[in-house]
């Protein structure tokens, strides 16, 4: 885990830091880089993303994306509902005395719960820092909730470090919450208030609370139910089919490759690594960034905008389903789900490696297990019908009187003849 960049290290004067950063912020908005050296890297990179996303620095409030029944449903179906007693016990019960708000949001930056000091909550509602509001970077620019989700780590944002001027009287510390089973980000925990919430002690407090939440989720195990995730179909397909938010989206091959590689790496990949895994020959990182920008426009709530690209929510693939069946020893189930090679038209090195890994795993397991029915089903599939070694194992596994033995022998003779003719 990268070292935490503290907003107010011990000994730093808050008033001086606020003025210094405020001047740098105004210079940045004028496209003047003279103050960039005075800004923490995590904040400066977020400002750049916010500007690229055309966030209005004079925006007065965040968009309300969950209201009434939609908010109630989001709360009732989100796995973090199980951990709210822990959050309240560790943070909310003392929030009023401390003069802070405690906020829990989902992986898209939408606030689900905002509890704590009543007076502070009323003031926060003027800019829609409340349940149902969207605080991802796309909506409000640099802020602890959205930026923590973007970079996948604990973030502190002090006063004038916020991109939107209306938020600059506030400070906040936030950290992403991960599903302990998958490692995917499922939400965010934030404390908001004055300068006291961005001290080193506040960072340790939030991180400790997140660890307690994740431990609670781990204890729940199978009882943990999350909102339906997204799904990507890649087996036997020239390009992917993405099922996302109730919609079926036919993706380009390149966008399918990007999502597949990120689904295989829950902690994310930098642009340089994606470039290496996507292209047979050298490609500039700017090419990857351009593709990611186009993909984010198609599915803006699925991908983090940070340089370390990662998925904001769990993305399940049909290739993962096959791997799960193989892990459990369900060979017939794996064959049934294996509808063909993974993105057979892709030449991306990272995808080719995934394709060979899954196909080789399935094939070797079948040859070693000697499961006659699983072998026969695979032999009849497009992936196995020209595989002489599979047909030979299938023939060896069939009983002498089996009517399917003659078929297997005939196919094997044909394949042996083709190989002999070719030779």
From TrEMBL:
Biological process, per Gene Ontology: phosphorelay signal transduction system; regulation of DNA-templated transcription
Gene3D superfamilies associated with the record: 3.30.450.40
Organism whose genome encodes this protein: Jiangella alba
Recorded GO MF terms: DNA binding
Matching SMART domains: Trans_reg_C
Signal peptide per UniProt: none
InterPro entries: GAF-like_dom_sf, OmpR/PhoB-type_DNA-bd
Keywords associated with the record: DNA-binding
Domain OmpR/PhoB-type: 246-311
Protein's name according to its UniProt entry: OmpR/PhoB-type domain-containing protein
């Amino acid at each position: 885990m990268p070292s935490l960049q503290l907003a107010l290290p011990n000994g730093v004067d808050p008033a001086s830091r606020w003025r210094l950063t405020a001047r740098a912020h105004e210079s940045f908005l004028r496209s003047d880089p003279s103050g960039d050296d005075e800004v923490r890297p995590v904040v400066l990179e977020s400002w750049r993303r916010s500007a690229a996303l055309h966030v209005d620095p004079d925006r007065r409030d965040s968009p309300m994306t969950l209201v009434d029944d939609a908010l109630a449903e989001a709360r009732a179906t989100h796995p973090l509902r199980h951990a709210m007693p822990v959050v309240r016990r560790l943070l909310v019960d003392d929030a009023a005395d401390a003069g802070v708000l405690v906020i829990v949001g989902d992986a898209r930056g939408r606030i689900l719960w905002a509890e704590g000091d009543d007076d502070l909550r009323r003031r926060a509602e003027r800019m829609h820092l409340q349940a149902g509001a969207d605080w991802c970077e796309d909506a409000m620019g640099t802020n602890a909730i959205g930026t923590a989700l973007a970079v996948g780590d604990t973030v502190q944002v002090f006063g004038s470090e916020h991109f939107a001027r209306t938020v600059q009287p506030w400070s906040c510390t936030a950290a992403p919450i991960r599903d302990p089973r998958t490692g995917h980000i499922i939400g965010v925990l934030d404390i908001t208030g004055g300068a006291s919430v961005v001290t080193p002690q506040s960072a340790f407090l939030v991180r400790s609370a997140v660890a307690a939440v994740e431990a609670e989720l781990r204890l729940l195990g199978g009882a943990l139910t999350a909102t339906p995730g997204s799904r990507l179909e890649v087996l036997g397909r020239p390009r992917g089919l993405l099922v996302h938010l109730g919609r079926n989206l036919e993706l380009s091959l390149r966008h399918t490759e990007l999502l597949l590689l990120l689904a295989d790496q829950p902690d994310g990949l930098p642009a340089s690594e994606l470039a290496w895994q996507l292209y047979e020959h050298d490609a500039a990182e700017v090419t990857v960034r351009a593709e990611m920008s186009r993909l984010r426009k198609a599915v803006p709530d699925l991908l983090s905008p940070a340089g370390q690209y990662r998925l904001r929510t769990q993305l399940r693939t049909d290739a993962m389903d096959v791997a799960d069946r193989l892990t459990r020893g369900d060979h017939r189930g794996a064959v049934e789900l294996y509808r063909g090679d993974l993105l057979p038209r892709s030449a991306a090195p990272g995808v080719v490696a995934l394709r060979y890994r899954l196909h080789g795993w399935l094939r070797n397991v079948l040859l070693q297990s000697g499961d006659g029915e699983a072998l026969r089903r695979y032999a009849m599939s497009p992936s196995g019908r020209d595989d002489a070694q599979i047909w030979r194992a299938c023939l060896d596994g069939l009983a002498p009187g089996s009517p399917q033995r003659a078929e297997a022998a005939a196919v094997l003779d044909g394949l042996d003849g083709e190989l002999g003719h070719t030779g």
